[in-house]
Design a protein that fits this description.
By secondary structure, the chain is mainly alpha-helical. About 55% of the residues lie in helices and about 0% in strands. α2 packs antiparallel against α3.
């Protein structure tokens, strides 16, 4: 879940689907906890200062997570043999995030591609042939 933080601003190479979706799950969990903390602080703090602290924590986490989230998305596109500039689809209203979601669900290209070796360790020769078996050329 924290591998994108270890590869903080590494935009080169490839990342597996598992790395991306575990990072996305971490984001959902942390944001949920932070929003509950901010909401709880708002309920029990009559001065309103608790909401400010909760929102500051959310903003700090968002700022810290922006670059790793962008980098892991670029590496996912690299895993599929696409340019990292595809992340700009996020800027297209409605259709862009849906397209990104579909791309993030797709498997990467087997074997090495122009962005590096296969993170799953699959060799490009281990592809199924027309009969459904595995061909070793």
């Amino acid at each position: 879940m924290t591998l994108p933080y270890k590869r903080y601003a590494e935009f080169s190479g490839r990342s597996r689907r598992k790395e991306y979706w575990m990072f996305a799950l971490l984001m959902v969990i942390v944001y949920t906890v932070l929003f509950f903390v901010a909401g709880g602080a708002a309920l029990f703090d009559e001065t309103g200062g608790g909401v400010g602290i909760g929102m500051i924590l959310i903003a700090i986490f968002a700022l810290v997570s922006f670059i790793p989230g962008l980098a892991v998305q670029v590496r996912r596109f690299h895993d599929q043999g696409r340019s990292g500039w595809f992340v700009l689809l996020n800027l297209v209203p409605y259709i862009g995030p849906l397209a990104i979601f579909v791309f993030m669900c797709l498997d990467g290209t087997p074997g090495p591609n122009g962005y590096g070796p296969d993170p799953k360790g699959r060799d490009s020769l281990d592809r199924p042939d027309a009969s459904g078996g595995v061909s070793y050329r």
